[in-house]
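Collaborator request, handled under Task 6.
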Amino acid sequence: MATLNRSGVKIHYETYGEGPAVLLTHGYSATSEMWEGQIDVLSRHHTLILWDMRGHGQSDTPDDPAAYSEEATVADMAAILDAAGANRAVIGGLSLGGYMSLAFHLTYPERVRALLIVDTGPGFRNDEARKGWNDTALRTAEKFERDGLASLRSLSRERSQSTHKSAKGLALAGRGMLTQRDGRVIASLPEIRTPTLVIVGANDTPFLKAADYMAAKIPHAEKIVLPDAGHAANIDQPAGFNEAVMHFLRTVDGHA
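Structure tokens returned to the collaborator:
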């Protein structure tokens, strides 16, 4: 375990194994613990880097709402790679973590060897659709403010099993990181030139069309639908998930 000081905000991250770097980012209101079922397999031939986003898990919960943003999250990811001695890495994540991985590629394409996008939406071109997403994000933040961490119990597995310092951080992250300001990320999909694996659970109905869209728009993208899996595909079907990811990594590394 390690801690990175980002202008007074402590960011928790962990590294496992040796080899080409793989950075995985958890979803909103989950933590790095959601990747527990991947640590042993992915760290055998790679340096696996896991971390907790601001307001989540063991990372700090700054009081300033301005400390929570897409830009701050992407900068945190770059700083973690620097701290781990990784100039380039396979960048991946689930849900919000997958979206932030796409945002990272938009900012630092030269640092991305490949993308692993799991149960994720790429954002919205349409202002009205984005407003609908943001309204839902704000209601989620309000629920954490009102009901506290008990709100997690009814959510998908990667969130219901997570441990956080306070609900305040999740509320601030919901307002500042889960909400979206523009359509830059979704517009960037056709410009992605790195190998990309899109994984979605067959039962994750809200994200099936998003997975189809990304697979169609990103050149060289491959899509895998995991049967009997919901929004936390890596937890619901760890064996199938790990097999798919390892095959992808072998291809990226030139060993397939």
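The cover message to the collaborator said: "Strands lie at 2-6, 9-16, 21-25, 47-51, 89-94, 112-118, 196-201, 221-226. Residues 127-147 form the longest helix (21 residues). Please let us know whether this matches your experimental observations."
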